[in-house]
Amino acid sequence: MVNLEWYRTFKEIYENGTLTKASIALYASQPGVSVHLNALEAYVGKKLFERTSRKMIPTEDGKFLYEYIIESLKKLEIAEQHFKKTTQEKNPSLNIGMCSEMFQLIIEPEIRKLDFDLVARFGAHTDLIKDLNNGILDLVITPKKQNEKKSLVEYIPFSKERIVLIAGNKTNVTKIQKHIKSKNLSKLEDELRQNVWYSSSNEMEHFRRFWFENFNKKPTFKPNYILPNITSIIRCLNNGNGLALVPDFLCQEQILSNEINLVWEGKVETENTLYFASRTDLKYKKELDTIKNIFTSKMK
């Protein structure tokens, strides 16, 4: 008999592209994910993925199988979430999604004070909003507002994040500051390109946008180090050498303690509006307000 978890595993590998990312999404070990996939392939008698060194590429059979099962799996996930909520009346549970850096900075220090259960999910904003629309998540913190007709999701703006240029405190920024002060953007751009740069895979959009809005062109170089998240960037720059473009609220503490330096806020403010995206049919509104209050108190 087929194990339903094999199909869940297959879905995550298909959507994430690698065994590593699928194991993270499933909160499982990579060997366990491989075992599930091998068992499913043996059961259906077909190869579902081409294995490469970097990615799992679906075969035609894999694509057909995904199309057959995806809607049923989505309905099952929604049913599980609703069933879980109705059987835990005495202990409310809130499912939230955001970037990992925001969770670590804003929510993590407050968890022990919460009087309800909390399930946090990290990922791309588009994926989190999709889970919100499907009823899997109750709240998403996002800089992107989607306008969908007949949606049960409402967007409430609560703060702004500004993208700023920071440097490790061992970085020589004398020439950079000179060009900023003289407003010589051509020389400033040339000088910036000479430095070591850090970025993260989920923040390259910020990097390109800041560059275009301040220099009226796309960056002609790529960062030297592309790390998993902004927290890693800040740790690398801490008392070190290099430049990065990051949201200001994620590095305020390190700037105040002189572990990194705020170099430039840009001639044009590169900002994102942050939204509370939540379902209008949410049962636990009191718990939702608690999470919202934590954010608004820390991100004034």
TrEMBL record:
Domain (HTH lysR-type): residue spans on this chain: 2-59
PROSITE patterns associated with the record: HTH_LYSR
InterPro entries tied to this protein: LysR_HTH_N (IPR000847), LysR_subst-bd (IPR005119), WH-like_DNA-bd_sf (IPR036388), WH_DNA-bd_sf (IPR036390)
Domain of life: Bacteria
Pfam family name, one: LysR_substrate
Gene3D superfamilies on file: Winged helix-like DNA-binding domain superfamily/Winged helix DNA-binding domain (1.10.10.10)
Keywords from the named record: DNA-binding, Transcription, Transcription regulation
Family, similarity comment: Belongs to the LysR transcriptional regulatory family.
UniProt protein name: LysR family transcriptional regulator
